[in-house]
């Protein structure tokens, strides 16, 4: 049979596909966590998975990536584009990892933990939507979220979950009574 293309699956190709899929899976799982260090580690794993995917896309080492039904000539060079893309990806991943680690360190210095907290505005919108849903069933409440804000109630007065009146967040003060970031 002339011109037949060998479509057999190589064990190395299957192994690399499983490794790339595993790196992407674990990386995305870590990026969905609330800890900033886990997010950074997930980003690093995604970068490594991308590098491996780019190198696997180049095909078997020493062979041109597109054969187009031609017999393999060992004198032909391989396509250098996947290696160049992988090097570029390594540099970009390194730069973004350094930036994310600096952000995580700064957040830890200011708040005393690396946990990503909920946004106060998101909670206010959620409460307003819940009350709007309750209005359809039970009628209007005594005070709506907008009226509460006009009356002076709002963030920082203890009138909402996670405000100053909520003691669910630990106080991260040092022995001398200063909070992280107060040394400026």
Question: Can you describe this structure in just a few lines?
Answer:
By secondary structure, the protein is an all-alpha fold. The protein has five helices and no strands.
Q: What's the helix count?
A: 5
Which percent band covers the strand fraction?
Answer: under 5%
Distance between the termini: 78 Å
Structural class: mainly alpha
User: What's the rounded overall pLDDT mean?
Assistant: 75
Work out the helicity level.
40-55%
Order of helices and strands: HHHHH
Draw up the topology in text.
Elements: H1 11-31, H2 36-57, H3 81-111, H4 120-138, H5 145-150
Helix pairs in contact: 1-2, 2-3
Model description:
- The chain is mainly alpha-helical and 184 residues long.
- Helices cover 54% and strands 0% of the residues.
- It is built from five helices and no strands.
- The longest helix has 31 residues, at 81-111.
- The radius of gyration is 27 Å and the shape is elongated.
- The model has no long low-confidence stretch (mean pLDDT 75).
Give me some keywords for this one:
184 residues, mainly alpha
């Amino acid at each position: 049979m002339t011109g037949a293309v060998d479509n057999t699956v190589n064990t190395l190709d299957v192994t690399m596909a499983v490794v790339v899929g595993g790196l992407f899976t674990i990386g995305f799982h870590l990026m969905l966590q609330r800890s900033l260090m886990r997010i950074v580690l997930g980003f690093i794993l995604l970068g490594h998975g991308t590098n491996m995917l780019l190198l696997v896309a180049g095909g078997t080492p020493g062979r041109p990536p597109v054969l187009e039904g031609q017999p393999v000539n060992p004198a032909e060079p391989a396509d250098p584009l996947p290696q160049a893309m992988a090097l570029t990806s390594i540099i970009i991943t390194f730069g973004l990892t350094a930036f994310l680690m600096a952000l995580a360190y700064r957040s830890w210095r200011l708040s005393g933990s690396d946990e990503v907290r909920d946004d106060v505005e998101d909670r206010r919108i959620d409460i307003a939507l819940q009350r709007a849903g309750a209005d359809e069933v039970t009628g209007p409440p005594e005070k709506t979220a907008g009226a509460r804000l006009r009356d002076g109630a709002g963030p920082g007065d203890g009138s909402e979950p996670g405000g100053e009146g909520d003691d669910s967040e630990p106080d991260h003060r040092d022995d001398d009574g200063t909070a992280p970031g107060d040394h400026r």
